[in-house]
Amino acid sequence: MAAARLQMLKTKAAEASRFVARNGCAYYKETMEKNKKYVVEPPTVEKCQELSKQLFYTRMASLPVRYEAFWKELHGVKNVWKNRHELKVEDAGIAALFGLELYAWFCVGEIMGRGFTLTGYYP
Fold this sequence. Notes:
Order of helices and strands: HHHH
Protein name: Mitochondrial ATP synthase subunit G protein
Number of domains: 2
Structural class: mainly alpha
Keywords: ATP synthesis, CF(0), Hydrogen ion transport, Ion transport, Membrane, Mitochondrion, Transport
Low-confidence stretches: none
InterPro entries: ATP_synth_F0_gsu_mt
Radius of gyration: 25 Å
Main location: mitochondrion
GO molecular function: proton transmembrane transporter activity
Strand content: under 5%
């Protein structure tokens, strides 16, 4: 069983390799042509490092704004919880469905992470 899977994997890898060898250059050129407005000139390692640092520190600068938004959201949830006796059935149903959807995505993610097996057994 394992040998058959290994052979199938080798076959698929070889097919993918041939596809990339035939179409990879054209795909690269097409993608670069479509997205040339995003390329910074000159495309050097130094420029890439500079852009990487800009991205990192820009994200760091956005942390206080996201921190405040988190606390506003948390206070909103606390207010809803305090006034839960005024909560309508529709709102509770929407919240329950949202929680159920999150749980379902978690389960699907776990199954995918185990290689689409339900038991976690790898043959």
